[in-house]
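Support request from a user on the community tier.

User writes: "When I paste my structure tokens into the form, the page sometimes reloads and wipes my input. The last time it worked, I copied everything first. Here is what I submitted, just in case something in the input itself triggers the reload:"
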């Protein structure tokens, strides 16, 4: 293992654990950081993370830790903490990170209080630190089982993206590089809200035709919103946009889809998540606020937000969408 780099993965959820195992083959050591010392101790003892990714052994190179100072030894850092916790995590990273280490954000969301994307938060909290985003159609269990998975990795400079892709790629994990950092982050954040809508349709038993129509119109909303902020259309039509949207809007493995499905079956917003984190529910309000500020119409996202905020029930939201004025498709 001489000469191999060291990687730190922040966040020992299912996705963080799967990424740590995937990267182990190309790294001498992979630090897997969790904020809960008891969780870390259990992972060390059992060499598994059954709390988040049951039945998957940790690779020998993966070392669970509770001390975030481990990042000082890392060539690069994958941040897999929830989007709403990223600022607090970045603040405690200051003073530990190597100046030449890129922070690769793997969460999908928009900060609710500020409307900032993850690379913008990093620029505020640790000025000058290189930022990247990894996003695309990917479930942790598929990656952990060694099933083929492809994602996009974006940085503002192409050379860094190429370097990171080479460092993180594995036989079953293919990365496509991009310099459209904001486009990749927008695709991951907005599709979560649209996935809730698709879950509502299926939970309400509105049929495959309605699901397909909502998916298509949701993609149109995503494209309008992203390009209004300078994202490239080809990014939104790629893995981190359309690809991730198609996966998340079609599978109960998605927490956002599952939340929508429960809402469609009549569960109340406060209980429909069943205790699981739904990034889409946390992103919905700031997404529609940003869209309004840009003059971008996002009626599906608006409907999801109204349901989550108890300003509309599912039936009324569907009726409102179906009774919108006729217009040309765009």
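"...and here is what came back when it finally went through:"
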């Amino acid at each position: 293992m001489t000469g191999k780099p060291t990687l730190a993965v922040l966040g020992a959820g299912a996705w963080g654990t799967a990424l740590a195992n995937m990267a182990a083959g190309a790294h001498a050591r992979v630090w897997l950081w969790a904020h809960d010392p008891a969780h870390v101790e259990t992972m060390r003892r059992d060499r598994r993370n059954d709390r988040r990714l049951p039945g998957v052994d940790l690779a020998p190179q993966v070392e669970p830790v509770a001390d975030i100072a481990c990042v000082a030894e890392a060539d690069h850092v994958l941040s897999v903490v929830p989007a709403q916790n990223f600022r607090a995590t970045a603040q405690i990273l200051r003073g530990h990170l190597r100046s030449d280490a890129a922070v690769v954000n793997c969460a999908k969301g928009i900060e609710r209080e500020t409307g900032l994307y993850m690379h913008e938060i990093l620029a505020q909290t640790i000025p000058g630190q290189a930022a990247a985003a990894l996003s695309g159609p990917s479930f942790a269990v598929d990656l952990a089982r060694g099933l083929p998975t492809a994602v996009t990795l974006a940085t503002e400079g192409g050379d860094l993206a190429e370097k990171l892709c080479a460092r993180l790629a594995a036989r079953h994990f293919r990365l496509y590089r991009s310099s459209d950092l904001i486009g990749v982050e927008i695709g991951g954040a907005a599709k979560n809200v649209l996935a809730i809508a698709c879950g509502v349709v299926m939970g309400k038993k509105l049929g495959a035709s309605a699901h397909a129509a909502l998916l298509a119109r949701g993609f149109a909303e995503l494209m309008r919103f992203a390009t209004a902020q300078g994202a490239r259309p080809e990014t939104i039509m790629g893995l981190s946009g359309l690809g991730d949207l198609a996966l998340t809007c079609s599978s109960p493995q998605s927490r956002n889809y599952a939340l929508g499905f429960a809402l469609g079956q009549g569960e109340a917003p406060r209980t429909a998540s069943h205790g699981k984190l739904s990034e889409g529910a946390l992103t919905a309000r700031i997404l529609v606020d940003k869209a309004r500020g840009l003059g971008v119409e996002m009626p599906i996202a608006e409907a999801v937000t109204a349901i989550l905020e108890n300003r509309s029930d599912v039936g009324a939201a569907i009726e409102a969408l179906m009774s919108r004025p006729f217009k040309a498709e765009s």
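Agent notes: The reload is a front-end session timeout and is unrelated to the input. DSSP finds 14 helices and ten strands in the chain. The CA atoms of residues 156 and 179 lie 5 Å apart. Escalated to web team.
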